Amino acid sequence: xxxxxxxxxxxxxxxxxxxxxxxxxxxxxxxxxxxxxxxxxxxxxxxxxxxxxxxxxxxxxxxxxxxxxxxxxxxxxxxxxxxxxxxxxxxxxxxxxxxxxxxxxxxxxxxxxxxxxxxxxxxxxxxxxxxxxxxxxxxxxxxxxxxxxxxxxxxxxxxxxxxxxxxxxxxxxxxxxxxxxxxxxxxxxxxxxxxxxxxxxxxxxxxxxxxxxxxxxxxxxxxxxxxxxxxxxxxxxxxxxxxxxxxxxxxxxxxxxxxxxxxxxxxxxxxxxxxxxxxxxxxxxxxxxxxxxxxxxxxxxxxxxxxxxxxxxxxxxxxxxxxxxxxxxxxxxxxxxxxxxxxxxxxxxxxxxxxxxxxxxxxxxxxxxxxxxxxxxxxxxxxxxxxxxxxx
Length: 392
Fold this sequence. Notes:
Belongs to the cation diffusion facilitator (CDF) transporter (TC 2.A.4) family. By secondary structure, the chain is α/β, with parallel strands linked by helices.
């Protein structure tokens, strides 16, 4: 409820979260909230830690301080990622937001390493932990704030598609666990003299390290080049197919240059006998409308397909029967016959399952198998086959 109210106020009731202005405004706001909340929690836990002499509470306090620094980095990352395109970066600077998320992840890991060392020293040289009810209640309150902050960052992160805020949300959720463990150990300390504090400190520190490693892995994926979102792939395919005269689509490629900065290219099959000016106008319209609707930059390549030629129809039907019996092949496209007389090339692309292909046979073996089957009935054709791998 509070999160939704704040988001509406900051976005000025706009629901177009992909708009650069709205996205930036919400990103800055989330960063500022993160700084304020984490600094407040740091001061509370630092006071409690110094007063009680608990190393685990101190570790949790400085973890919150690193979170405040992470929020500053998030704001800077969003600011830099919104810089306009230039000569060296024609598609903008959107990936800087991923880099800022990566810096946040490394800062989280650094805090974890530091407190593994501090907690181990506390085990070797134990000191008594002084239990007090007021510090205990303050720690419980800090858990409630962290739960809210995690949900708040996730809500905004999902709305504006910010990897940095999603990373901060996951980190805050991890803090809920670590603080809960600290609270439990702090409460148990009133009943025992066993140096539980140092051991709990190590558990907290190891969990911080794990959270940092998870954040590194998640933020590295888009930088390396992860698979595109399935819903976006489906929207592009279905969107292009919805236009008149488009009979098929294939070879979709999506490049991610940062949140809200995707470039996509796709091949659209059209009848070979249609008026070129008419279909060109349809494709131009599709590019423009889908780019605006999906917030991407879409380029559509036209593939003219002959649908009336009897020789092509007959050969295609025959080859479809051959590939339908092969579990490795998912589909066929760009089918055409080029040449005259006795010198004709049968050209087509096959989409195959990448995982099944490597296990069952090689790409060369699959081509040879298909070509041999075709030669049995149509020896006059020279087959030119392109294998497209589907990473399912």
